[in-house]
Amino acid sequence: MAQPQQSEEADTGKPPLRVGMVGYAFMGAAHSQGWRTAGRVFDLPLSPELAVVCGRDADAVRAAASRHGWAATETDWRALVERDDVDLVDICTPGDSHAEIAIAALEAGKHVLCEKPLANSVAEAEAMVRAAEAARARGQVAMVGFNYRRVPATALARRMVAEGRVGTLRHVRVTYLQDWLVDPEFPLTWRLRREQAGSGSLGDLGAHIVDLAQYLAGEQLAGVSAITETFVRERPLPTAPSSGLTAVSAAGTGPVTVDDAALFTGRFASGALASFEATRYATGRKNALRIELNGDRGSLAFDLERLNELSYHDATEPGEHAGFRRILVTEPEHPYLEAWWPPGHGLGYEHTFVHQARDLVRAVAGGRVPEPSFADGLQVQRVLAAVEESAGKNSVYTPITA
Amino acid sequence: MAQPQQSEEADTGKPPLRVGMVGYAFMGAAHSQGWRTAGRVFDLPLSPELAVVCGRDADAVRAAASRHGWAATETDWRALVERDDVDLVDICTPGDSHAEIAIAALEAGKHVLCEKPLANSVAEAEAMVRAAEAARARGQVAMVGFNYRRVPATALARRMVAEGRVGTLRHVRVTYLQDWLVDPEFPLTWRLRREQAGSGSLGDLGAHIVDLAQYLAGEQLAGVSAITETFVRERPLPTAPSSGLTAVSAAGTGPVTVDDAALFTGRFASGALASFEATRYATGRKNALRIELNGDRGSLAFDLERLNELSYHDATEPGEHAGFRRILVTEPEHPYLEAWWPPGHGLGYEHTFVHQARDLVRAVAGGRVPEPSFADGLQVQRVLAAVEESAGKNSVYTPITA
Amino acid sequence: MAQPQQSEEADTGKPPLRVGMVGYAFMGAAHSQGWRTAGRVFDLPLSPELAVVCGRDADAVRAAASRHGWAATETDWRALVERDDVDLVDICTPGDSHAEIAIAALEAGKHVLCEKPLANSVAEAEAMVRAAEAARARGQVAMVGFNYRRVPATALARRMVAEGRVGTLRHVRVTYLQDWLVDPEFPLTWRLRREQAGSGSLGDLGAHIVDLAQYLAGEQLAGVSAITETFVRERPLPTAPSSGLTAVSAAGTGPVTVDDAALFTGRFASGALASFEATRYATGRKNALRIELNGDRGSLAFDLERLNELSYHDATEPGEHAGFRRILVTEPEHPYLEAWWPPGHGLGYEHTFVHQARDLVRAVAGGRVPEPSFADGLQVQRVLAAVEESAGKNSVYTPITA
Amino acid sequence: MAQPQQSEEADTGKPPLRVGMVGYAFMGAAHSQGWRTAGRVFDLPLSPELAVVCGRDADAVRAAASRHGWAATETDWRALVERDDVDLVDICTPGDSHAEIAIAALEAGKHVLCEKPLANSVAEAEAMVRAAEAARARGQVAMVGFNYRRVPATALARRMVAEGRVGTLRHVRVTYLQDWLVDPEFPLTWRLRREQAGSGSLGDLGAHIVDLAQYLAGEQLAGVSAITETFVRERPLPTAPSSGLTAVSAAGTGPVTVDDAALFTGRFASGALASFEATRYATGRKNALRIELNGDRGSLAFDLERLNELSYHDATEPGEHAGFRRILVTEPEHPYLEAWWPPGHGLGYEHTFVHQARDLVRAVAGGRVPEPSFADGLQVQRVLAAVEESAGKNSVYTPITA
């Protein structure tokens, strides 16, 4: 086992928050950036330390530790969650292991950050919520990683909805469009296997947009009607254990056991209507998470491919001068921008993880339930379950059960 | 020296096509522009004449005739369809009168252009198709006015799909967003009454996007799953017979008997997925008919608010240089552009009616079935009926029956 | 039952305004659309009649008359300006004939509309202004055809500047970018010959942007510093008399005697700075007239390739919600929009000529000096002359002399 | 003197590159991010260490060191450049101190990174180039910090120009628009004083766009014609020593001794034309560095406010399908993207400093002259000097002297 070394945060004079991360692929790299940077940019009550990273392949995890700046390594997450020098367990693995790791970590007295979707089933998610509630009584916090709440533009949108600038909500329309499966020769990575990923575009992309839509709307979905589809049902097997979105094709094929695309409509509790589309077959759309809210006082629109911008239409203005304005969300009064660059100097994707780390550190220090909580993650899981149920029952409208 | 002559249509030396138009509000004004202009811009085999316009109020129809340049007036559409000096009847009335007028005109030996939606019910539309087929044997043509097929950009999109530039279709997503009902004090015009309009956003906006989606896809929808909603169920009565989209509010209120918004997902015959949204409550969106098609060779996107542009992503290009390109559809090789202005000098909404007139005149002269035919209009009506059926049955997936 | 009547213009019951047009190429077609449509859309005090069109080639002008709906033809503009049945002479010829025709028409008692640039020299333009002033005493009006003042979005911009929404002006930046000369094989049309066109991109495109910049700013340029360039100095001769922007190449070449591009900076009377660029070599830019004004209270931006939109930044708003808003200039309260289509149904390029006709008819009926007057055209000519002078003197700053 | 501590990079097993940074305001924070992150994301031959940071105020520099993660501090740059544990001196101070620090550091055997503009005068820049050349013989490298060459989209643009995709260059137009001086109450920070900043918008913004234009064009400017202006000549004095772009106003005013805006046109060596505008008064434009290149084979356009995108028009394509395409510069084959996130997950402003650090580390390890070199910085300085000379001589065209 590698030993912790003198870490970069040692000189801040603040109490440390020692992070142990499980998984080190795409999400692991992004979370590493978040933990490394948050305390350098924001004034935090605790100083995050990249204490231990865990992965099954000892050589690979050592290389990742060296690359990303983690002081020590583990090859068994069970060892990691028991370490005394870890305060918070950050779970960056595929969804099938979330429940087991998170519950063990909470029972071991750790704070937990768990990547989305919270779990691969409602039952798992319910168990995680129970564990989080028990841990909360012990002062531990648990957060699920819906990082797109922490784009400054979406956080501004939430603030504006809360201020009443959208008014009575009528419509929410959201798409999350990617195109990395258009090529039928793209291999069968773990994201295309139900046993690991739980679902396909639904759990990966749909979870994000369900959470974001409910977060921005400030209310929950009451029911959904859904269609799902798997366009390419057989794909080449990867040669090596795949990680993240890239993989190498190999001889032999296997069945795709998750959805390629999921479309659903729904009703919010207030009666507002919603439409959702998650797909990996939207040729030319790389990361097009787009959301628009229409209310009787205004509208908001956001596109993740232009994440420094928020569109806003103020319906209380005279029609002669009204129009969707492009707010460049880089002003010091915008969420998270107090610590960054001058106006017009935009942020990128990974900053959402810096902001997530910031907010989680503050929640830990303040003993507050962080947003989004495991309960929020469970509720998203219930929506996803209703989507799958509706899709399996001829799209019939399916209420979200609490 | 040549002498001044009387009529601008008299001197073309071409046989006339004498048009009798029923209705003279918004659509009547637009059609008048189309008939007046088509022969001035395009080289047509027949010379359209604005012969007779018909409306119930004699003074109002005379004023409209004077304004729009119609040579004569009628106050009873039955008289108009019987006139010997009318070759083609152009129906610009609300949907409840389409079937009766169109069938009478066809039986009277006239060509017919009928505004969309073709009818307020499938049964009416079927009767219209039968009348059109009978008339076709006599050399008459019948067209339904889905004018958005005739934006140069959508016509180019159709051409590109037919050339295989989109490839195997995976997704079609369409919205038609307007916002003129956001104000609950907007009065109860004919468009909000089921007995006249048949339906609300569904027949008005939804008919357009169903037709356009199927036209561009080159295939038909197999089934739909739908939600509809009426957000504001009681509105002030208008003081005077309303026309078009504007009206004056008055004392008293009445029930809105049509949908304010309709959302539906669907499957194309090929297995491609589709999503549709038609609404009059999308605050800040004035005429946002937006359609995107994703296939395995490319994608196309169009926005009616920027109607001189077509977005195209060519997936056969190397990723390094690929991207959605904005084609400014104003080049001489683009559809309908051979007769207009130099590149970059854009067209507007009304040009779709000029193009519609052009194509219909050519179909009349050539004895060809025009596109979109009454059969096309009937098929759209069947989709709308399936949408209403699904919305009434808890959104259950409802096949489109032939 | 009303009887069909002859001419669409004959039945308006309004006094006619009989137009005689000289030239029938690109501008002639556009003006024809304007005259034909203005009285059909707007409520005008006089009813424009397309009385006589004039061109040197008898067959060609007869064909043009038939196509565009002119009642009679002439082959000598001197005959046209003397006709008793012509009230207004509309000059759509190259710049070298503007002065002679306009002065003769004014002396013959006609109103005059003259395409831009007003003339090919300051001296000619001065003579035209003197003729217009003399004619004004006789109740005649004279207008120069800077049609881009009559895009609803630019007219709205002017209104907003006049209302103080831009405040103290700091910057005006304008480009007019086209690309039809990028191909060195494009032939040597009249627009590339100094003796006919006066100048190249400067008089064609530069005249538009100088006029528009001064119009929107509400003030005049005090001086300029300029660079001009001819990139391709020899081009193939056209086979036939060229018209408009299209032509056929032929054997033999000849020298390009005008500028291909003109760049200049300048100062407004108030001290605001300006930059201008006019070119026919901006590959991919088809008709990109773009103007932006920055003042201490706000900014405005316009792009002719998206002519139904105006961008506006209100600097008096809190920074948190401020941003350039895209005003879709299609609302009934917007300039010229009272008579057109519902919100979101955009207009096109040719509508500027309809609006020009509308405003000119009203000026004629009201006996008012129309905007832009010949004096306005002369002032633009003086700016263009200063540009050429500066370009010839090593770009030295050259004041605009009155 | 603070002692170096065990630093975050100690565990990479690579030789260190120990950085000593002078200045810790806006640029210092950005450079810190760059040094901290480069080795975590890219595979570098040396491991950057944040060794020493230097500032005049001991308390402030200690706070900055703690915040940004520097192991030690100095209060005198002369001490810093003499330290044995510093390999590279990174100069983030105002321009008036660049020459002195850089020359001393080079003479002390250090590699140097110097923020732009290289110096406040051509003479200083020449001395710096001489020092860099002498140091080069000793294996030292010297780079000037034109970080906007290292946006992936601009780097891709450079690659595409080099591949001939733009062809013979005709036009380059560049603006760098900000608006932070619109408010006349914004205080007189060091950026508004000639003795510290050298010039105003010219050296701050103009230096960037002159460098970027020449870099992308692949050639140098031959001469310029310029206008400069100071709109607000007196401003409130700041209460405290100002840093960066933010400051607090105070009692009393002082004269602004630099330009607020600079506009210039120019000619490239090849005959292509260029226009430049740098201003801090473009209301609503926050960081709008926009550049467009037009050549006979294609065009490129970039906007720093949307820095993950590059627009490209390929003029060799048939006009029917041609258009400016929006390349989302987030693909693995794009410059710098091999190490970042999946497609569509955009980067931000600070990443340019990570890339700068990457490239400089590799130059140091490889003993190569980095781009942009001090010689490149000197050449930009000569352009800026010609701009000021032209502006002082009635805008007369002023050649750039070598």
From TrEMBL, chains A, B, C, D:
Residue intervals of the Gfo/Idh/MocA-like oxidoreductase N-terminal domain: 17-141
Keywords of the record: Oxidoreductase
GO molecular function: nucleotide binding; oxidoreductase activity
InterPro entries given in the database record: Gfo/Idh/MocA-like_OxRdtase_N, Gfo/Idh/MocA_oxidrdct_glycsds, GFO_IDH_MocA-like_dom, NAD(P)-bd_dom_sf
Annotated ranges, domain GFO/IDH/MocA-like oxidoreductase: 156-300
Transmembrane segments: none
Top-level taxon of the source organism: Bacteria
Protein name, as recorded: Dehydrogenase
Species in which this protein is naturally found: Streptomyces griseomycini
